[in-house]
Amino acid sequence: MEAEPPLYPVAGAAGPQGDEDRLGVPDGPEAPLDELVGAYPNYNEEEEERRYYRRKRLGVLKNVLAASAGGMLTYGVYLGLLQMQLILHYDETYREVKYGNMGLPDIDSKMLMGINVTPIAALLYTPVLIRFFGTKWMMFLAVGIYALFVSTNYWERYYTLVPSAVALGMAIVPLWASMGNYITRMAQKYYEYSHYKEQDEQGPQQRPPRGSHAPYLLVFQAIFYSFFHLSFACAQLPMIYFLNHYLYDLNHTLFNVQNCGTNSQGILLGFNKTVLRTLPRSRNLIVVESVLMAVAFLAMLLVLGLCGAAYRPTEEIDLRSVGWGNIFQLPFKHVRDFRLRHLVPFFIYSGFEVLFACTGLALGYGVCSVGLERLAYLLVAYSLGASASSALGLLGPWLPRPVPLVAGAGLHLLLTLSLFFWAPKPRTLQHIWILYTVAVLWGVGSALNKTGISTLLGILYEDKERQDFIFTIYHWWQAVAIFTVYLGSSLPMKAKLTVLLVTLVASAASYLWMEQKLRRGVVPRQPRIPRPQHKVRGYRYLEEDNSDESDAEGERGGCGGGGRGDCAEEEAPPAWPRPGPEPAGLYRRPCPYEQAQGGDGPEEQ
C-alpha cells in the first residue's frame, strides 16, 4: 500500500530529481534563502484563519463547561457537607458521645449566622475584589474558600467552624457574581469568534450590534444552570450512600409530630431529638469528608486549569483603571436605572424560592410527612426537574422575551396556591407521589426563573464595563432574601407562603411594567463609566507621570496641566518630519525609529 504524501513537503528534502526540483532550483544546503524562509506557495490564509477561530470557539466551549462543572461540584460539596453535618449535630446521642459539653448547637447556630449574615456586606467589596483579582481568579479564590470550609470539618471546633463559615459567607456573592459575568463574557467572545469577518470589516473599535450575542447567551446559560441544578442531586450522594444507613425510620423520628404542611409551625416542630440508630464510626466520617475534600480540590483545578481569562490583559487594565473609588460607587449608582429597580423583586423572589424548595417544601411538607430517610430523594427529584428544564431556555429565540420568566412565575404561583391549602398527614406514605410531582414542577419553575433572569441581564447590559456590577447587584439581593428567610425560619408555614406569594406577584407585575416601559421607548438612565486613568509605565500608556518624559517636555507638552492622554482626542500630532521650523506650541517627541533616522528631534535644533 502506497503511503500518502505529507501535507507540506519537508524543507530541504530531495525532490523527484535528486538535489534539484523540477524547475532546476537546487535543494538542500544550496537552496536559495527565499525557498527556505519564504511563505509556502500553497498556504491558504483563509483556511488557516478559519481553523484558528474554530479553535478559539472550542476554547470558549471548554471554558463554559469547566466553569459550569466547577460550580456544580463546589456547590454540591458545600450543600452535601452542610446537610450531613446538621443532621449529625442534631442528634442528641451523637453530640453527647462525641463532643460532650462543648456546646455544639451553639456552634452550629453561629456557623449558620456567619454563612447567612456576612453576605449582607458583599455589595461593598465584591466589585472591588472582582476588578482587583480578575473574573477567573475571583472564581478560583472563592472556590478555594469553599474548599477551606470543607477542610475545617476534620476538626470541628468553634475556632475552625465559625471563622470558616464567615469566610464562606464573604465568598458567596463574589463567586456567583463572577460566574454570571464569566458566562456572559463567554457568549460575547463566542459571537466575536463566529463573526470574525464582520468584525474585520467593521474595524476593531466598532461594537457588534446590540443583542447579537443573545442566541449564544441562551445556550451557555442553559448549560450553566443545567450543571448548577445538578449540584442539589450531587449533594444527596453522601446522604444516600452513607447517612441513610444510620437513620431511624419515620415511625420513630415523627412520633411526636402533629401538624405538617400549611398547618406546621417553624421547622419540624416535635421532631425526635434522636435520629441515628447507630453512631457512624469516626473512620467512616473521615473517609466521606476526604472524598468531599477531593471533589472540592477537583473543582479548584477545573477553574484554575481549564477556565481561560474572561478579558484580554489590556481590557483587565482598563477595567481596573477607572479608579477604585468609582468601582466602589458604581453598584449604588446603577440604582438610577429603572430596569434594575423593576427587577429587584424578581431578584428577591429568586432567593426565596430556592430556599423554600430546600427548607419549606423539603422539610415542612416532605420530611414532616414521609420521614428524614426520603429527604434525599425529594431533593434529587427537584434537582433533576430543574436541570432538565434549564434546556427550555433554548426556546428563547422563538418566544417573546417575557415568556420564560412569566411562565416560571405562573407555575410557581399555581404550586404556592395549592400548597397553601394542603396539609399532609404525618407518617403517611400514600401521598408521596404528590410530593415528588410538586418537587419536580417546582424545579421546572426554578430553572425558568434562574435562566430567564441571567439571560435577561446579559441582554440588557451588554457593556463589559458594567456586567460585574449588574451580577453583583443580582446576587446581593438574593443573599438579602436568603438572610430574610434565615430570620423568619420560625414563622408559621402560612406566613411563609403568604410572603412568597406576595413577592411572586409583585415581581411578575414589576417585570411586565419594565417591559412595557421599554416598548414605549423610555430610555434608562445609566451611570457613566469613567474613562480609564492609566498609571502603567511603558509604551502603551503614557501620561503625566511618564517616566520617559523630560521636565522640559512636560512643561511644553501638557494640555492645560493634564497629561497627553487628556488631549489625545482634541488635537492630532503634526506629521513628522515636516518641512520648515517646528511650531513652538505644538510639540511631539519622536518615536525611537524617527530618532534613529533624524537625530533626537527638536532638542537638537
Automatic annotation (TrEMBL):
Compartment list: Cytoplasmic vesicle, Phagosome; Endoplasmic reticulum membrane; Endosome; Lysosome
Topology term for the membrane: Multi-pass membrane protein
Superkingdom to which the source organism belongs: Eukaryota
Sorted UniProt keywords: Adaptive immunity, Antiviral defense, Cytoplasmic vesicle, Endoplasmic reticulum, Endosome, Glycoprotein, Immunity, Innate immunity, Lysosome, Membrane, Phosphoprotein, Transmembrane, Transmembrane helix
Gene Ontology terms: cellular component: endoplasmic reticulum membrane; endosome; lysosome; phagocytic vesicle
Stretches the record annotates as Disordered: 1-33, 524-605
A molecular function GO annotation: Toll-like receptor binding
Family note: Belongs to the unc-93 family.
A biological-process GO annotation: intracellular protein transport
Main location: cytoplasm
Function description: Plays an important role in innate and adaptive immunity by regulating nucleotide-sensing Toll-like receptor (TLR) signaling. Required for the transport of a subset of TLRs (including TLR3, TLR7 and TLR9) from the endoplasmic reticulum to endolysosomes where they can engage pathogen nucleotides and activate signaling cascades. May play a role in autoreactive B-cells removal.
The protein's name in its UniProt record: Protein unc-93 homolog B1
Transmembrane segments: 60-81, 137-155, 161-183, 216-243, 285-311, 343-363, 375-396, 403-423, 429-448, 469-489, 495-514
